[in-house]
Each structure stands twice: as C-alpha cells, then as structure tokens.
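Ops channel
N.P.: pipeline sanity check, posting one input/output pair.
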C-alpha cells in the first residue's frame, strides 16, 4: 500500500529525476571530463612512443645489431665467445657509452630507450645517431612494454641485459614522483619479468646508485653498510630495486649484479647535473648557486669519470655467472652481487667550479646558499675495495683531466661543430 512506503524510499527511487539530481549528475560528469582531459603532464612520453616498433625490416635490424662480430670466435682476453647484450637506456649518458664500448670489442648490442623529455631529447637523438653509425640499433620503446620486451627476446637469445634505463635526478622527484615509480620500480620489474621468462635467461647487470647511502654519516660508504635512510624518492626507488633484485634472484635464479654509481660525469653527459649546467651558466654569464651544508660544511662529491664507469660495467658483465632458471623456474642458486663504482676521492663543489673557470677561461658569478632539503646529500665517498678485488676496477681519471675532456666536447657540441664529434 502506498501508505506503507517511507517518503525517503520514495524520493530516492522515483524514476523521474528531480532538478537537484540532474544538477548533481551534471556536476559529477563535468568533473570526470575535467580530470580526464587535465591529467598532470607525464614527461615519460609514454603515448608518444607507442607502436614505433615491429615489422619485418625492424626485426631484421634487431637481429643484425644483436649479432656478435664473428659467431664462434673466442675473445682471447675473456676466453669465451662474444656476447649479445640488450642495453636499456641506451640513448642515455651511461647507456650510450656502455653500448658503444661493447660494440667496439665485438659484442652484439641492441638498445632500447623511450627518449623521454626529462632533459633535451635532441641530445639523446644525437647519441643514438652515433650509435647507429657504430652499428648499434636503438629501439624506441618503453621498458614497461612487456610485448616489446618479449618480442626482443623472441628474436634474440640475449646472453646479458645491461639495464640502465631509469628516471634519474633527485630533485625532479618532488615535481614528478610518478615518473620514478614508472621507470625505476614498474620498469625494473618489467625487465626482470622478461628476463625470467626468456630461454635461456640472460645475466643482468643494472644501475643502482650511491644515493642509497642516503643520510649515512660513516664514510667511505661500503656495500655492507646499512642503506635504510634514503634522502630522496629517487634513492628510495633504487633501494627498492635492490630488494626486487634479491627477490628475482631468490625465486627465479636470475644472476643479478647491482652497481652503485657515484656522480658520473664526462662527454655526452646529463644536462641536469651540476658540472653540466654550471658550464652552461658560466659561459652565459649567469650566476650559479653553490650549496653548503649545515655549519658551512662544504658539499663534496666522489665524481667518477664515464670511462672508468664503463670499465666497471663491462667487467661486471664479463664476471657475471649464468642465470640458473629455465621455463620461468629456478634450477639452482644464482649469483647476486652489489658493487660501488666510484672514484674514492671526493671533491668539494667549489673546487669543481674553480676547475671549470680555468678551463672555460671565464670567472663564475657565484652565490653561496644553504642546501635546501630537496633530496641532495652533503657528501659522497665510495669504498671500492670490493670492486677492485672482484672486478679489478681501478679508476684512472681525476676530475681535472675528466672535466677537460667534458669541456672540449661541450664546446664542440654546442658550437654546432658536430662534424668533429667523437666519443
Ligand atoms: N649519471 C650518474 O651520475 C648516475 C649516478 C647513479 C646512478 N645512475 C643510474 O645510472 C643509470 C644511467 O643514468 P644516466 O646518467 O645515463 O641517465 P640518463 O637519463 O642519461 O639515461 C637513462 C635513459 O633511460 C631512458 N629511460 C628512462 N625511463 C625509461 C623507460 N621507462 N623506458 C625506456 N627508456 C627509459 C631515458 O630516456 C634515458 O635516455 C640510471 O639507472 C641512473 O639512475 C646514474
């Protein structure tokens, strides 16, 4: 009976919408449309790189690029055949140098990079052009694209993966935290998943970071030290990566080596790093900010020259044991390693600036500021005993010599003198 119905139920379930219901429904729909079209900018260019791969000639390029110089030939220095290496982040600073070094000694190399716009993508494209000339094909794609990774492993039985693709930089994490989760966590898992499923499974060498030492005060930093006080989201994603690496090694028998790089610099470097943008600003006559820590403590970094880092990466590949899994299942214990790759001689940032001033023959306009709490740490210093014992890693370039090479490259590159470009 009509009299039994509660007036509340009647109002809610009436099939004739009231003006108020229509009003709120329209507001809700407008909100959904607004959020859909105004999602925050995503600098990983995920949409832009979709579907840039595939087809017969693309597969052929992958195959040719992955082929070692001479099948069956044994490299006397290593006592084994040449390798086929997938280098992620190959259009990046470290990735391009490592890819080229491997290719030069006869290994087959295929690169992958999404050419995101975290820094000027034209620099990444120039690096790719040089790699292309050297016979290294860099596939344009995202490491989160599982179909692409599986396709690459279908075409090539990679012996090794040199995983260098990541969202780098500590300060940018405050502006775009999602890009760190996308590349350094989801992307890392995606690479491990593809390696786990591959038959044979490749051995993996990947870039962690010295930033995992975070707010530690015991120096020099050694691999056995605790790393549970990251000072930035970047550092936290690298620390998480080391945990994820342990899991994939433990469950699936992947052979994994993590490398903690210390402030890598050199020709073809990253424009977001201090030595690079100081050079640019000094030449333009723009003031540069030099940070100092609490109690006027000077900020210092264990600057490591790119060629030394490349040697450490290549030595890690050469000493990596095979993964033990097959069919996605572990068949026995596999190697799991972590190494510091640094220079063991921290240099204050003020000294870096004075070297640049001499090389550029220009006085810098300096402002000394308190270091903001945005992810940076005051001091880094690597203990490299483990790498020197097990990888025979021995850095040989000091900051003065390395910056000289960087400045020469910088002046050539940005003067448009690209004909003279060399690695
Ligand atoms: N340069 C250093 O001082 C330093 C120090 C410590 C650790 N690292 C680590 O070393 C590695 C290489 O660093 P770098 O200095 O060459 O940086 P980089 O930014 O020059 O190179 C990284 C490359 O990865 C690519 N990339 C990022 N996300 C990707 C994705 N989702 N899919 C495909 N490609 C992607 C980028 O486009 C870039 O070309 C990184 O893992 C970085 O975290 C570098």
């Amino acid at each position: 009976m009509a009299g039994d119905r509660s007036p509340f139920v009647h109002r809610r379930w009436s099939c004739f919408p009231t003006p108020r219901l229509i009003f709120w429904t329209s507001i809700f729909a407008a909100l959904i449309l607004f959020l859909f079209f105004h999602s925050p900018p995503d600098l990983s260019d995920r949409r832009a790189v979709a579907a840039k791969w595939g087809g017969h000639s693309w597969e052929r390029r992958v195959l040719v690029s992955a082929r070692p110089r001479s099948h069956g030939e044994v490299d006397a220095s290593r006592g084994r055949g040449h390798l086929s290496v997938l280098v992620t982040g190959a259009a990046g600073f470290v990735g391009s140098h490592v890819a080229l070094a491997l290719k030069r000694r006869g290994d087959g190399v295929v690169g992958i990079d999404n050419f995101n716009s975290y820094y000027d993508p034209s620099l990444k494209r120039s690096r790719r052009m040089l790699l292309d000339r050297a016979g290294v094909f860099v596939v344009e794609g995202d490491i989160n694209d599982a179909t692409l990774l599986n396709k690459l492993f279908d075409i090539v039985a990679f012996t090794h993966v040199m995983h260098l693709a990541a969202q780098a930089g500590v300060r940018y994490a405050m502006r775009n935290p999602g890009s760190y989760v996308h590349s350094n966590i989801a992307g890392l898992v995606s690479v491990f998943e593809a390696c786990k499923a591959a038959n044979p499974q490749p051995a993996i060498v990947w870039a962690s970071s010295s930033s995992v030492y975070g707010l530690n005060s015991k120096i020099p930093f050694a691999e056995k030290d605790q790393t549970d006080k990251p000072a930035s989201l970047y550092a936290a994603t690298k620390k998480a990566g080391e945990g994820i690496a342990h899991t994939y090694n433990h469950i699936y028998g992947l052979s994994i080596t993590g490398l903690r790089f210390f402030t890598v610099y050199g020709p073809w470097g990253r424009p977001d790093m201090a030595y690079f943008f100081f050079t640019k600003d000094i030449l333009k006559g723009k003031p540069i900010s030099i940070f100092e820590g609490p109690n006027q403590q000077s900020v210092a970094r264990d600057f490591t020259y790119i060629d030394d880092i490349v040697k450490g990466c290549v030595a890690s590949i050469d000493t990596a044991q095979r993964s033990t899994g097959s069919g996605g299942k572990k068949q026995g214990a596999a190697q799991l390693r972590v190494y510091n790759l640094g220079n063991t001689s921290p240099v204050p940032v003020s000294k870096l600036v004075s070297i640049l001033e001499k090389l550029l023959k220009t006085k810098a306009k300096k402002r000394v500021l308190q270091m903001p709490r945005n992810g940076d740490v005051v001091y880094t210093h690597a203990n490299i005993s483990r790498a020197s014992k097990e990888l025979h890693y021995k850095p040989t370039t000091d900051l003065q010599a390395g910056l000289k090479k960087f400045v020469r490259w910088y002046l050539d590159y940005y003067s448009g003198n690209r004909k003279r470009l060399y690695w």
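N.P.: looks fine end to end. The longest helix spans residues 177-197.
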